[in-house]
Amino acid sequence: MSEYNNSKYQIRLPIILFIGIAAGVLIGATFTDSTSVVKNDLNSNLHKFKEVLTLIDQNYVDTVNTDKLVDDAIEQMLSELDPHSSYIPARDVKKANEDLRGNFEGIGVEFNIFQDTIVVVTPLSGGPSEAVGVMSGDRIIKIDGEDVAGVGFTNQDVQKSLKGEKGTEVKITVKRKGEKEPIEFEIIRDKIPQNSVDASYMIDDITGYIKVNRFSATTYDEFLESLKKLKDKGMERLVLDLQGNPGGYMNHAIRMADEFLPDNEKIVYTQGKQSRFDMEALAERKGEFEKGDLIVLVNEGSASAAEIVTGALQDNDRALVVGRRTFGKGLVQSPMDLSDGSELRLTISRYYTPSGRSIQKPYDNMKDYSRDMIERYNHGEFFSADSIQFNDSLKFETRHGRTVYGGGGIMPDYFVPLDTAHNSSYLNRLFTSNSMQEYTFKYVGRNKSRLESMDYSDFLRGFNVTDRMLDELVEVGESNGVTPVRSEMIEQKDLFKLHTKAQIARQIWGNDGFYPIYNQTNEVLRQALKLFDEAEKLERAKL
To answer: DSSP states of 350-388 as a string?
Structure first.
């Protein structure tokens, strides 16, 4: 009887694998030399693939979604290539590209969900919600007439309901403090910008700080604007924070690196199977910060385009790199549109730093590749540079003779271990339960006029989070099911106060108000600020 009790997935799996193998042969053939033998193999495999799919469609005992079979087959064949080639079905292409394009289409609100209610944290400046009068603190109770309060709406549900094509309309009904009746808004969706520069500010009279969270279509313009702003404020040296930056568009990484390097210095080059995918990028314009001490911050979350910038600046002895070994993604994907609107992101080359390093870590074993970060942690790499062993065959030299290594991420010039002192499991639960956000949102709502009347420098120096405020935070946590751990809060009271203060600042002054406070827990930055003498030596060595 067991042969008749297989799930539909179990029945389909051999079919999917067969199609995947056949299609895998097909995709491999398309990138080999154009000989008659290859053409015959290609035609034969095409015919076989079509033949199998037709037989399944016409004769298989159950109804089959052939579109899904093909999608599954494509994903299966790509999984045999490398970890970063991917297939995006037509229905998901727009969403997948939103982050990189630097904008999305929607109503333009920052929201959060408190006590199963959607609350507007702030309408985004210049967006359609601000234009019609939506205000911070408004509680959204209906979207297009559907009740959304107290029904278990998730962040994904909200985004699905409020995002949409530019020019389309959505109706929201809100409850506002002080108003007896709900207020209804008709909002026309529009393009909403997403910033990739999280913050840019002066740490002291001469030291600037810029944090870049990804490389999107707007990154270079945002970065250049931030750089000029800091120079106008007297910046003489800079910290460029690329920690946790997963990468994105290579051309924006190249343009960013060009701002730091003199003309004709190599930034990156790529090599692929076909010569049309080979490229060499050189600095070609007068940059905004070609002179001045520079430190780049990286960690295990810095990847791809972030590694291009880091590698270029390290290999040219332009910057001191501080932090932990980067992710190790040196494969270049090219988006290729398919006829049905879907997209293939195919690895077409490897990139190399100016000294010739390939940053890509090995991916012979996909399971090992996916567990790399866990293995680094277990091996002790996050805590000790001595745990990292480099093969001498992967040794390279920078422009002025410093030793650097390839073969899996960029090793910083100065290693900073993962800081566990600024960590609290209770504090983490207050964040993951939204309790910290809910408390600080309510606090700002009660004290907004007083806070907005303060100068930020006065807030930074003079605002103190009281013990009573922490007690209120605990109460909000309890209402969200977070059991208090008083001993942990007492032991790390300064940490709890710092995070509370940073969240309050974010609601009044945005990220430029948040990061100067939050970065007091950024151990990589704290150590980097002690190393500008070393960065200065790099500058002098080039003279």
So the answer is: EEE-TTS-B-PPP-SSHHHHHTHHHHHHHHTTTT-GGG-
Average pLDDT over residues 132-138: 86
Indicate which residue of 129, 304, 355, 435 is catalytic.
Answer: 304
* Maximum average pLDDT range among 3-7, 114-118, 327-331: 327-331
Tell me which DSSP letter residue 285 carries: S
In whole angstroms, give the CA distance from residue 325 to residue 100: 24
Nearest alpha-carbon partner for 485 in 407, 394, 424: 424
Instruction: Say whether pLDDT at 344 is over 60.
Output: yes
Give the separation between CA 361 and CA 357, rounded to whole angstroms.
Answer: 11
In degrees, to the nearest 5, what angle opens at C-alpha 133 toward C-alphas 132 and 135? Answer: 140
Q: Which tens digit of pLDDT belongs to each residue from 286-298?
A: 999 999 999 999 9
Angle, CA 526 vertex, CA 522 and CA 529 arms, to 5°: 140
Task: Count Cβ atoms below 10 Å from residue 326 Cβ, excluding itself.
Answer: 28
Selected residue with higher pLDDT from 287 and 384: 287
Q: Which of 72, 190, 241, 315 does the annotation list as catalytic? A: 315
| Per annotation, catalytic residue among 163, 211, 266, 329 | 329
For residues 306 and 247, is the Cβ–Cβ distance under 8 A? yes
Catalytic status, residue 315: yes
Give the C-alpha separation, 477 to 434, whole Å: 8
Q: Is 355 an annotated catalytic residue?
A: no
Residues 276, 248 contacting (CB under 8 angstroms): no
Q: What is the mean pLDDT of the chain?
A: 87
329 is a catalytic site residue: yes
Contact status, residue 391 vs residue 361, Cβ threshold 8 Å: no
Q: In sequence order, what are the residues at sequence separation of 6 or more whose Cβ sits closer than 8 angstroms to the Cβ of residue 343?
A: 87, 88, 93, 96, 335, 336, 337
- The whole-angstrom separation of Cα 314 and Cα 297 is 12
The sign of the torsion formed by the CA atoms of 3, 4, 9, 15 equals positive
Q: What is the mean pLDDT of residues 394-408?
A: 86
> What pLDDT, on the 0 to 100 scale, is given for residue 10?
40
